[in-house]
From TrEMBL:
It is an enzyme of class 2 (transferase). The keyword Thylakoid does not apply. The lineage of its organism: Bacteria, Pseudomonadati, Pseudomonadota, Gammaproteobacteria, Aeromonadales. This is Protoheme IX farnesyltransferase. One of its GO terms (molecular function) is protoheme IX farnesyltransferase activity. Carbon 2 of the heme B porphyrin ring is defined according to the Fischer nomenclature. The keyword rRNA processing does not apply. It comes from Oceanisphaera ostreae. It catalyses: heme b + (2E,6E)-farnesyl diphosphate + H2O = Fe(II)-heme o + diphosphate.
Length: 298
């Protein structure tokens, strides 16, 4: 009896570690943006289409995150924020994590190829390689612009959602990609300011390490202003209506307020608060896009 209890505790701890490898909260927000991309298309998708596309994209995004855990294990162990991670700690062996990542991504790719369409499958694979290989192996270690360029991989999901339903590119989907692309620098640099010493210790050339905290705060503010302009584009091109315009303007004003406070009136927690707000900003923005679409088009 005691033996089987021990086995089941170990099993559940193991499952928890494998689940953590997929960066579930990040993937959850990625999937929200992908699903909204599916639901904003002129064609109304059926539930099975939405389910298979979400499953395939989610499995590949989770697989990308697991590969990142393996390739970054030596960096992760040096940083307070990440040192507890399963591969960094050796609770999951690199080989096992890689096998898990390949199976997860392989099944995801197969689902997309068989039940969604080839365009979405290959674009999702490109996003996976963009994050797990181009960003993690090269950009992250090479340049403080790492997250600006690498951000493209994380910005792709609304386009993946759109192509999953329509099988083709559309300017409206590219606008959604542009929003996440412009959002990524203030999202990440706010956290990087808070964790500057961690990145310096691990030798990762993030902007606050290479160019200092003040310069990074200026960049956060400028990118937040740029994001504000980009966020208006769906309304400018007639893709979204008044509900979106009013809602996103309020979200943007709040983001600018955080970025302004970070630059000119910071407390010890402002950078972290700005980072947390960035996540709510993107989540509510996509909820608004959907609500506005349903109000206007039913
Ligand atoms: C290259 C682009 C990006 C970089 C460098 C980046 C970086 C980060 C980092 C370092 C964290 C902290 C993770 C942790 O504490 O474990 C984080 C958290 C988060 N990111 Fe990003 N991110 C990027 C893109 C995205 C995208 C595209 C999304 C979703 C659409 C996203 C959503 C989130 C969420 C939801 C969290 C909170 C996770 C949690 O609380 O555990 N990020 N991001
Ligand atoms: C297939 C597909 C849609 C792929 C999506 C790619 C993906 C999971 C993007 C998330 C970006 C992210 C969490 C970056 C974290 O940076 P980091 O790895 O430097 O942060 P860390 O220090 O927390 O590991």
């Amino acid at each position: 009896m005691a033996r089987s209890a021990l086995f089941s505790t170990r099993w559940s701890l193991g499952c928890r570690d494998y689940f953590a490898l997929t960066k579930p909260k990040v993937v959850a927000l990625i999937l929200l943006t992908a699903v909204v991309g599916m639901l904003l298309t002129p064609t109304v998708p059926n539930l099975l289409q939405v389910f298979t596309a979400t499953l395939g994209i989610g499995m590949m995004a989770g697989g990308a995150a697991a590969i990142n855990h393996v390739l970054d294990r030596r960096i992760d162990i040096k940083m307070a924020r990440t040192h507890h991670r399963p591969v960094a700690q050796g609770r999951v062996q690199s080989g096992s994590a890689l096998a898990f990542a390949f199976v997860l991504s392989g099944v995801g790719l197969t689902i997309l190829l068989l039940w969604v369409n080839a365009l979405t499958a290959w674009l999702t694979l490109a996003s996976l390689l963009g994050y797990a290989v181009v960003y993690t192996v090269w950009l992250k270690r090479a340049t403080p612009q790492n997250i600006v360029i690498g951000g493209l991989a994380g910005a792709m999901p609304p386009l993946l959602g759109w192509t999953a339903v329509t099988g083709e590119f559309h300017g409206h989907a590219l606008l959604l990609v542009m929003i996440i692309f412009a959002w990524t620098p203030p999202h990440f640099w706010a956290l990087a300011i808070h964790r500057r010493d961690d990145y310096a210790k691990a030798g990762v050339p993030m902007l606050p390490v290479t160019h200092g905290i003040e310069f990074t705060k200026t960049c956060v503010l400028l990118y937040t202003l740029l994001l504000t302009l980009v966020c208006l584009l769906p309304w400018v091109v007639g893709m979204s209506g008044l509900l979106y315009l009013v809602g996103v303007s309020l979200l943007n004003l709040r983001f600018i307020q955080w970025a302004w406070r970070l630059k000119f009136r910071p407390s010890a927690q402002t950078a972290l608060q700005c980072f947390h707000f960035s996540i709510s900003h993107l989540m509510w923005l996509f909820v608004l896009l959907l609500a506005d679409h349903w109000i206007n088009y039913g």
